Amino acid sequence: MSTDVRHTPLHGLHQALGARMAAFAGYDMPIQYPTGILTEHNWTRSSAGLFDVSHMGQAFLAGPDHATTAAALETLCPADVQGLTPGRQRYSQFLNADGGILDDFMVARPLGADGTLALVVNAGRKDDDYAHLESALPKSVRLVKRDDRALLALQGPLAADVVTSLGGAIADMAFMSVQPITLGGIACEASRSGYTGEDGFEISVPAERAADLWTLLSTDARVKPIGLGARDSLRLEAGLCLYGHDIDETTSPIEAALTWSIAKRRREQGGFPGAARIQREIAEGPRRKRVGLTLEGRQPVREGAEINTQGSATGIVTSGTFSPSLNRPIAMGYVGAGQAANGTALDIVVRGKALPAQTAAMPFVPHRYKR
Amino acid sequence: MSTTYYTQDHEYIRVDGNVGTVGITDHAQQQLGDIVFVELPASGKIVAKGEQAAVVESVKAASEVYAPVSGEVIETNGELESEPAKVNEDAAGKGWFLKLRIKDAGELSGLMDEAAYAAFVKTLD
């Protein structure tokens, strides 16, 4: 891996906006703009937040027909890809032989081009994902890296109004659907999805038009730029996993409470890496489970904090923050299966002090997807 | 007449007689961003110069606040428990953390004065 810090096509715009930049997954990314994380977070929940997520990996899998391409991808992940209809998108995970998660990703079946699947993978994992795909795909299915594209996310209750006012014909788009749209004359690929729990879009655009699209969206008074800091607090409130923290090569999708992303046919038939473990965990229950955690008081808990039950360790916090929407600390982590039921009382140890906590249902803040 | 001294870790100590009021600088609060929690020591705690005296948490992360000099904690700013954002609003004033009875005024000579700190911050940009 190169130690050079990479830039997205919008790097200069972030600097001009006065963003505080920091390295994230090999990219110099905006962590926050001058208004700060709380303001950005609350803006996204009440209006429309604009995110540069161009660091994420965009790629096509190109094969002769849908059945062939889908079958190839299904050998690496437990989603029902064959059943994906044109214009629809799903969430899944690349798994290792032990059923651990190599990365999590979105896969869409674009309208038109039969045999093509569009992937969006994590920035910090994309080089490994691409190598994994290239070594595993059959000759008839090619990986086409789309490094010439940027990715913008527009998230929040007013996101759809903003896109519509710019000419985007998205009225018929439901959550987890994809279609081409044109915004201000710029041809884009939109997905009605995101990482905040809000209604919104991820918009793929040619890199050379990314700044134009950003500027066009920013011109709307309902839109403000949002950095990775608020992206993290928003996704945590929405109960969504961050790869490398809440899920990794040691966690299975069942332990991670992602069983919903594995279709019935795949559970029964297997045929993906780690199927034996995953089928066993579905049948018998996992040894440990990802849970939401809430605390009394205002003190946040962070990744790595130990979770105790009656004085002995039962687990670990994998993400924690102060929830701006709820005005209290929230976290997620893994606990033993016996402690996973909602409302179980636990302690979380911070700087030697045991803070009373309890397991809580996720999302912490209800999703507002357009179904 | 008080004199304020600064550390390279961006704490300040405003000294009045043998009592110093400790907080983090405006530069520090800007760097931390929105502050959501402050953990303060108990009154009576003895702290050594450079030792952790408090913890300040932003949305993103926890940061330690070190004692600029050695001494005994004689008072803490309880208002920060319910209103930690005071640190963002007025770091040098209402956002103070704790008061120390200074053990050895000689330790102050190792700290920066206002001009030296301002010059130090400039080197960080």
Layout: helices, strands, pairs:
The complex is a heterodimer of chains A (371) and B (125).
Chain A: H1 11-16, E1 20-24, E2 27-32, H2 37-46, E3 48-52, E4 57-62, H3 66-74, E5 88-95, E6 101-109, E7 116-121, H4 126-136, E8 142-145, E9 149-155, H5 159-165, E10 178-183, E11 186-191, E12 200-206, H6 210-218, E13 223-225, H7 228-237, H8 264-269, H9 275-284, E14 288-295, E15 306-309, E16 312-323, E17 328-336, E18 345-350, E19 353-360
Parallel strand pairs in A: 3-13
Antiparallel strand pairs in A: 1-2, 3-9, 4-7, 4-8, 5-6, 6-7, 9-12, 10-11, 11-12, 14-17, 14-19, 15-16, 15-18, 16-17, 18-19
Helix pairs in contact in A: 2-7
Chain B: E1 3-6, E2 11-16, E3 19-24, H1 26-32, E4 35-39, E5 46-47, E6 52-58, E7 62-66, E8 71-76, H2 79-82, H3 86-89, E9 98-102, H4 114-124
Antiparallel strand pairs in B: 1-2, 2-3, 3-9, 4-6, 5-8, 6-7, 8-9
Biggest β-sheet strands, sense, barrel of chain A = 6 strands, mixed
From the helix content, strand content and strand pairing of chain A, which structural class follows? alpha+beta
- CATH C-level label of chain B: Mainly Beta
| Order of the strands making up the biggest sheet of chain B | 1-2-3-9-8-5
Strand order of the largest sheet of chain A: 10-11-12-9-3-13
